[in-house]
């Protein structure tokens, strides 16, 4: 069986997944987007990949989902937009499968776990402009839980057939928490220091803070009964080395004057720690610092004006 897939969000991850599917299925990738200018650009010119993958593939972009337009909807938007994207995915799929590959945690309210799969990706991709994605690091995509993917083996075949390194796990939560811990360690520090990811390796002070952030996230995960597949504090150095030339998405968002995902990363770790009777002072402090910087940028105070 070959089903129909639509991707909600045509940013970095959405653009990369669209490439895998378009190559494998041999049809234009289908996107659901919010901005008319983006829809026109993607539909008219397709999506271009640069960097480690050089390609341009055809695509169709829609502003409103049509009922039953696809069998699977992949949500690849910022964490704070997942709620709206999920409603669009429900309409687009009817009773089909929904896959969420967004960063962070804490957006799950209203998500039907029986028909939802979560994806954890360590591909390095950056949106350069509407319809243009730069691939800076090759990685893998972990999907789960496996029980929700029964009957959707064709989706896995389609992703793999297009070159995606995809695998399925019974329990995806340990992988989600590992990704959360790494994001909580690297993203806010690089955003505050306005540095590439390699700053974690080059500055012993930054590394000490990053490791402390990872340990706090690990403590919260363990209190929830989650055992991560790797120790995040040690994995942190490997990720920082592999992505050393990258600017984190949080830094890019701040520099562009956009809202960050801090509420769903360090903010989530701090809230969960408090709920469980634990403390996560580093995560809470960096959460507050990034929120303060967000406010300063919005008010125009982040430009050095007195």
Explain what this protein looks like in three dimensions.
The chain is an alpha/beta fold. The protein has two domains: 5-168, Rossmann fold, CATH 3.40.50.720; 173-303, N-(1-d-carboxylethyl)-l-norvaline Dehydrogenase, domain 2 (Orthogonal Bundle). It contains eleven helices and twelve strands. It has helices at residues 12-25, 36-45, 82-93, 153-161, 173-193, 199-202, 204-223, 232-242, 249-255, 266-275, 281-298, and strands spanning 5-8, 29-32, 47-51, 55-57, 59-62, 72-75, 97-100, 116-121, 124-129, 132-137, 141-144, 166-168. The strands form two sheets. An eight-stranded mixed sheet has the order 5-2-1-6-7-8-11-12, with helices on both faces. A four-stranded mixed sheet has the order 4-3-10-9, covered by helices on one side. Helix 3 links the parallel strand 6 (72-75) and strand 7 (97-100). Helix 5 (173-193) runs antiparallel to helix 7 (204-223) and helix 7 crosses helix 10 (266-275). The relative contact order is 0.12. Residues 302-306 have low confidence and may be disordered.
- Per CATH, the superfamily of the largest domain is NAD(P)-binding Rossmann-like Domain
Count of runs of 4 or more consecutive helical residues: 11
The CATH topology of the largest domain comes to: Rossmann fold
Could you estimate the helical fraction of the residues in percent? 40-55%
Query: How many extended strands?
Result: 12
Question: Which shape, going by the Cα principal axes?
Answer: globular
- Using the coordinates above, name the CATH class of the largest domain: Alpha Beta
Average pLDDT: 94
Order of helices and strands: EHEHEEEEHEEEEEHEHHHHHHH
The biggest sheet amounts to:
8 strands, mixed
Q: Which architecture name of the largest domain does CATH use? A: 3-Layer(aba) Sandwich
Low-confidence regions? 302-306
Number of structural domains: 2
